[in-house]
Amino acid sequence: MKILIAGATGLVGSEIVDLCQQRNIAVSYLTTSKQKIVSRENYQGYYWNPNKGEIDLECFKGVTSIINLAGANIAKRWTPLQKKRILNSRINALMTLADGLQKLESHTIEGFVSASAIGIYPDSIANYYEEDETEVDDSFLGKVVLAWEQEIDRFKQFNINVAILRIGLVMSGKGGVLTEMAKPIKYFVGAPMGSGEQWQSWIHIHDLARMFLHVLEENITGVYNAVAPNPVTNVKLTKEIAKVLEKPLVLPKIPKLFMRIALGEMSYLLFVSQRVSSKKIEESGFVFDYQNICSALEAIYKEKTKQYKGDTCSNREYVP
């Protein structure tokens, strides 16, 4: 297997690259910076510029699978310009990959798997979402994910296996949402958001990297939720982060209005509730290493904190 990765230097991409190297899987990657092109055994960079539709067609040479992770960070204030970047970065990346494939006389690609997001599901405290849900969240993010997935469907024209992973909150000690949630807790100003009852579907970054390779290795097609089996409420997640960091939570819950003033429309990400099922990916044969938030956080912080203290979680915290 030889994998071409778009977004290889990001948080998730770096984890996938590390896993590929452990398994002796060759990786080609795309970068918008010619200075970041590296050439070594089983790891080769190629230049592309999705905003201009430019791509080095040599990147497809010998490739059997493509992983697409390209897209601007959604966790920045949603100004009109940033909204445009969030949408265009995802659509332009996919269009550039597809246009590149169309220019080839032949190719060796068998599978294509792209990141998506659980942000497509409507905000709901009560619902438990599976992949066949047809209603789309009436928010900026919901509209972005819908357009994103419609563009991914273009790759079916190449007669290859096409899969979509709708990713939840990625738990990692190297950056991303967990790092941002942990910051105020470390400085004794952490607290649940709003009611704290909103559901947050998450996944350990190690399991997410494994899932991308599982999809390719098993020739899986279709849409799958990339979330752990046990979603948690914002209150639960906040408390468990505080517990593993051995920090108290002393402040009251943070009102929606306060965060709306501070972050603008982007504050929606803090209060949206999406309880999402992992049943379909598990039925494909994928086995999670981290099924509950306690074990996931313990693994992430085991080298940074003392041995985890407090009540242990059962293997399944939530059973719908």
CATH class label of the domain at 2-168 and 204-226: Alpha Beta
Radius of gyration: 20 Å
Number of helices: 10
Largest sheet: 9 strands, mixed
By CATH, the architecture of the domain at 2-168 and 204-226 is named 3-Layer(aba) Sandwich
**What name goes with the CATH superfamily of the domain at 2-168 and 204-226?**
NAD(P)-binding Rossmann-like Domain
Summarize the entry for a quick read:
It comes from Arenibacter nanhaiticus. The protein has helices at 11-22, 80-103, 140-152, 177-186, 205-217, 234-245, 256-263, 268-271, 279-283, 293-301, and strands spanning 2-6, 26-31, 39-40, 43-49, 54-55, 65-68, 111-117, 161-167, 169-171, 199-200, 202-204, 222-226, 232-233. With 320 residues, it is an alpha/beta fold.
Structure, described:
By secondary structure, the protein is α/β, with parallel strands linked by helices. The chain has a domain of 190 residues: Rossmann fold (3-Layer(aba) Sandwich). The chain is 34% helix and 17% strand. It contains 10 helices and 13 strands. The strands form 3 sheets. Strands 1, 2, 3, 4, 5, 6, 7, 8 and 12 form a 9-stranded mixed sheet that branches. Helix 2 packs parallel to helix 3 and helix 4 packs across helix 6. The two termini are 37 Å apart.
